[in-house]
Design goal:
This protein has one helix at residues 2-19, and strands at residues 22-28, 33-38, 45-63, 69-82, 85-101, 107-124, 134-153, 160-177, 179-180, 183-184. The chain has a three-stranded antiparallel beta sheet with strand order 3-8-7, with no helix packed on it. The protein is mostly beta strands.
């Protein structure tokens, strides 16, 4: 009967250890006694990946066989922390550089066109509660590529031009909890 009592106490201690984020640091087999010690709360980093596909209207149009150079910059903020999920919203700012042709047929090398595209994503974070604070620890464009589409002829000249630039960007955002019940953690 004493053995059953010790086993029940041991099981209760194990359950308490799991619930209160403590760990068993030493077990004394001679007295069937366990010592529990507080451990650090796990603070994993969570990530989401966003794939954006969109078209940018090129006015003035790009000349056929012209090189297109584009750069991207991403900004993101945490919009809302809900139980088990963190909502993120952001914008990708693109700069497209190409050789443009005006209505009268004049060429403009290194013409710059700017485009902003907004996005949203959600991150599953089982430990998230509404009163927790999260921070973005990383936000970057992992891959970006594009192609010119919508081929046509220029009205003033017989040159072939493209009117749209189709792009695909892959963005990765990492977050980490920075507080637990209002107390900041490292």
């Amino acid at each position: 009967m004493a053995d059953n009592f010790n086993n029940i106490n041991r099981d209760n201690m194990m359950n308490e250890a799991n619930l209160s984020c403590t760990r068993i640091c030493r077990e004394d087999h001679s007295s069937n006694h366990m010592q529990l010690e507080k451990c650090l709360i796990a603070n994993p980093q969570h990530c989401c990946t966003v794939i954006l596909e969109y078209k940018t209207c090129l006015v003035p149009p790009i000349m056929e066989h012209s090189d297109v150079k584009h750069t991207a910059y991403v900004e993101a903020v945490i919009e809302k922390v809900c139980p088990g999920i963190v909502l993120i919203c952001g914008v990708i700012q693109k700069k497209i550089k190409y050789t443009a042709i005006s209505q009268c047929g004049r060429e403009y090398p290194d013409f710059e066109k700017y485009d902003d595209v907004s996005f949203q994503c959600s991150v599953d974070a089982d430990e998230a509660n509404e009163d927790d604070l999260y921070k973005i620890t990383g936000c970057d464009v992992v891959s970006s590529f594009g192609e010119v589409v919508n081929k046509g002829s220029h009205q003033g000249t017989c040159k072939k031009v493209f009117w749209k630039y189709k792009q695909k960007d892959i963005i990765k955002i990492a977050i980490r909890r920075c507080s637990v019940n209002g107390k900041y953690t490292p």
